[in-house]
Specification:
By secondary structure, this protein is mainly alpha-helical. The protein has 3 helices and no strands.
């Protein structure tokens, strides 16, 4: 999970929330913020991070199968990390699909 949401994104979100002033939706200096992260970038970065984690885990698994210098513990840890990443990605995907379906059912 720490691979999916980076520290930079968390700091950016915290910084944005700490600049909230007055009513909802008003950011202090919103026009001049160069470090904004939009939703599409967040999803893209999360997907790329997930794929990178899965690829690295597969490499460790393959190295363990062919007998390279990889311990059984490293293979198990990589497999568990890959499984956790995949479960999180599927959960996020399901939530996005559910939100899309709810939006499509809204009356206009």
């Amino acid at each position: 999970m720490d691979k999916l949401i980076t520290t930079g994104l968390v700091n950016s979100a915290y910084g944005s929330s700490s600049r909230l002033q007055g009513g909802p939706g008003q950011l202090a200096g919103a026009a001049g913020d160069a470090d904004k992260v939009n939703f599409a970038e967040l999803v893209r970065d999360a997907a790329q991070g997930s794929m990178q984690t899965i690829r690295e885990a597969e490499q460790v698994q393959q190295a363990g199968m062919v007998g390279e210098n990889v311990s059984a513990q490293q293979v198990v840890e990589a497999t568990l990390e890959m499984e956790t990443t995949l479960r999180l990605a599927v959960s996020v995907r399901d939530r996005l699909v559910e939100a899309y379906q709810q939006i499509m059912q809204m009356p206009i």
